[in-house]
Fold:
Amino acid sequence: MREGSDEEANAVKDVLSTRLGLRAHLLTITWKDVLEGTGYEHPKDLPNFETVARRQRYRRMAIQLSNSKIASLFLAHHQDDQYETILMRLISGHSAAGLLGMRAASDIPECQDIHGAYQSGMIDDQASRAPMINYRPTKYDLKSIKAQMMADFDPATVAKELTEGTRASAYLEDELDHYVPKARLMLPAAPPEVEDGGCMVYRPLLEFSKDRLTATCEANGIPWFEDATNHDATLTMRNAVRHITKNYTLPVALQKPAILDMSRRLRERAQLDENEVVRLLGRTIIRDFEPTAGTVVVQLPTFRIPRLRRTRNKTLRRAKRLEHYRYIAALLVKRLIAIVTPELQGPAAANLHNQVLRIFPSLNDNPSAYPDHPKAFNISGVHFHPVRTSSNPKAHMNWYLAREPYVSGRPLPKVNFPRLPLRLRWRRRPELWHWPHWKPWRLWDGRFWIRICNRTNVHTAVAPFDARHAKAFRESLPDGRARDKLMALLKHHAPGKVRYTLPAIYTHSDYEEALQNYERFADVEKAMMLEEADIKKQWQELDHKAQREEYYKSRDWETRQQQLDQDDELASEKDKNRVLVALPTLGIAKPGLDNWIRYEVRYKRVDKSTLEKSAKDESEVAWLSSWTAKVLVALIGGVIILALSVVQDQSGVFWGVLTTTITTPIAFFSAPAPGPKGGSAPAPSSADDGTMANSTTVDLGWYPPSQSLINNLTNVVSNGTTGVYGFIYNSSYTPDDEYGTYNWCNMPHVRAREYVRPSGEYELVYVELIHRHHKRTPYAANSFPVESYTWDCNDEGLYYFARPFSSTSGSPLPHPDAGRNSSALTYWEAFSGLNPFEALAPGWKGTCQFPQITSGGLDDSWQHGADLYAVYHDLLGFLPGRAEEEGWREKARYRVTNNVITSEVAGMVLNGMWGTAASAPLLVQPSGADSLEPDYTCASSSAQFADVQSAGGNPAWGAHLEAAAGLFAALDGVSGVGGSDEGFHASFDHYYDNLSARQCHGRPLPCKLVEGAGGGLVNDTEECVTQGMADEVYRFGNWEYSQIYRDSGAESLAASVGSFGVWVAELAAHLRGVMGGGDGTIWFHNVAHDGSVSRLLGMLQVDNMVWPGMGSEVVFEVWRGPGGGGSIATTTAGAAVAVNSGTRGRETREQKTSVSGYYVRVLFGGRVLTSSNPSLGTLDLVPVEILLA
Structure:
């Protein structure tokens, strides 16, 4: 690699050999093998040459260490290297863990798959004649043991027993065998051994500077060698850092003493953290570690956050303490993950934040926001599954950790082992084939070390246990007892899907058939007259070409086998020909396999301290807790006695009473009348009973929304427009720093993290919100004539049942133990049955209803409820607690539409808010008269909406259909929808729903279905809906909603009022009721549809209209604040409230005092809604009189 490096290496070797008397090895890297397949001809051309060279150096040394049985590798990294390393990591932005620097002792890096070098080899070493570490007793110890045994030996007793015999067997239980029923015990499989050992890397010179080491060598006559390229500051980052530190004066904080001192402090802190983890392990019960399947069952401790003194910075101190506890918990979880994970590098503790909050909900800022029954999750290839062993809700939760099931579409872990070479099979019968040497140990799936000795003429492979081969393998076992044993072992060691993560040994065809059809039978018959030595001699006399010819003369099946091994296109056929022959960790194999294939399996090394320092059962945890409690009681008792001796009568209690007088204005919503600007004329509000002393004239005219990219048709169809304005369509997740971004799959809503509370002079008294249901399957009407895949909902249940109310319990709620006939919690489960018409039905197939809230949508609904509770209870203290006695049922009401999907969402929201799984009423109006959906008939409104969405009545609509003609044609070509289908071509509603539902649930965009070669329909991957086409559909959809509900002048406003005005009138009645004292309801929650939210936004004249996505939310907050008896400015028609005439509502509006003392804040997407109507403007604490007028 560097000119003169060979001479330099030999010079170092000579010095070590001649002057120090050390045996030195000169190791070289075969770069030809490294560069194969990279496209580079020289190593220096590699873009990551330094990284590759480092990896190859370690791997070359590791192989030498393993072969030489060397367990320790000493490296000469010194203090200056440590300084440079930390400085580079500091420049690169590493966290505290990276700034610890190089460790003085560690496992050899870059060698995780080299047996004997990395965390393995101890078992083989102990089995050898001359182990590297000898645990066997010495000869002296053996003599001592023998002497002690002979001292206990009584010759007379032995002689008597030999002549007279013993009265009974050596086993006491034998006398009772006659009375004990014979039960067949199914013993668990012998677990595989767990690896240990490996090579450790030590850096003993980290405390010494380079100058001191150089001086020491020179003083002892040892020459100092240094790579000349180390002085080239342009070659590597380390060289540049070295050049800067040598030739420039850095700030004191970046100089070597400060950097090394910082690293030392961080290491001390890290050690303290590890000590805390060890103490936490003492309260962690590891119940069952199973190396057979690589699983473990753990019972984690509970964090109890101590109460802090009431001080000014109490909240900050609690947050810091929570942050520290989370980090310690993450270190514990990281240790547990290491037992099971297939990943060679585990996760960083900083990346386990969300998982820690799931496992330890008490460490959340708001513990009640997390469910009492946590769900399973995956991290670093480990599946965490919660397991309850008791019906007691306060019982500790167990977690079952297993390897994450393999994901379809990703390559499965596989290790190949070759068959017996042809030279050892040539002209021999199979029974004369000799056993070859064991193949090296191979690491499979990052968890199991496996090696195979194969003397058959078929290749073998280790791959996951495949359900497709299970039946054939079970039937190959000799009898029913063996089959029962297999099923019992699988049930015991690998229940459920865990069994499909077990390693299995496959042959690439049936080895028994291959042995019967051994190659070139005639040649074998002739060879029977020859001795073994003659056969070997004949083979050796053949040149290479002749040997290859002999190889290719073998039977057709062998040639075919070779093709299967080399041709990736035949992968499916290859899997079909594979034969499962053994499950090595269970010790189950086909009969007679050990005559031809032998195998050994071991589990990877597991940190012994994790297993040894954990508690074994509850008694250990109870003892530790009891001992700790006694110590604390003693300490606290002493402190109390000391305090009582100092503090006398210095205590007091203060009580305060808050009283409020309510003035109640009465008004009502007015529908707009035709007026100027194509809009509506203002109408004066009415006062009822003269209670509003100074009535307010509010402008009810239509005002256009802001001009934006969304409602600009030219931008929508422009070839230069890409994406959808940064909107999200492919996931429910929005990063915290981007929260507030439009996410169709899960729209932003009120959350504690972003919520802005008004000043302390305002008191929240009532909240009413309306939100669209969360994400669902598509509607059946929006499906294509033939869909390319099914849509299954087996991961949830649709509950449909009715239950009579109790007539004796005194409660209006249905209860299963109410003394009357009750009902089972029945739910729908789709099935095909014998319905001959199902296959003919167009659209989606599967186990879902269309529509149905999906499992992901249910999770989003629950989180929505939890977030609302976190704001209005935890942050504001407005909602009552979750306990039944706090009366939340009387204070909170929920309403849904006749469409069952809103009830599905409401149930999850209720549980997310109140943590209840009990019965709860949902208000619903009769079908046909439901104002929330809305479902009532309004002929004028329907006509107005129809006019807006027609080319004749709305030229802009006609222009957009004309511009969309090409996109419609392209979509029709893929979907199979006919061009005359009005439902798909009157607007983009159907295509929008179909495509967005796919993408929100991680499903692919559709491709054209064509007749396959083998019959049936297959995807034509050359003709699909592209992401660009989908984005254009989404842009058109948002333009359409803005056009329908905002941009079409007074007609769009009047259409919304006509079809949704009844619900708005109901909202107004609720607000008036609150100001009049109310009925005790403080929370009214409506779950509706996009049409409901869109009409409401249209009536509020939102300044930027979008298509309300899944979970879209509009919140009306009523606050009591300054006012009551004051006056409010009266405005003239067309003028804005509190701003000069002619200004727009989106400008800043001066805060006005409410006559009644009540104010309304309207939030859309968690943020204050801005209206184009100047009377409303920014709806942030608007006097209620303005909204009601």
Notes: Confidence is low (pLDDT under 50) at residues 169-185, 564-573, 629-695, 1125-1149. The domain at 5-118+199-261 is CATH 3.40.50.620 (Rossmann fold). The longest strand covers residues 763-772.
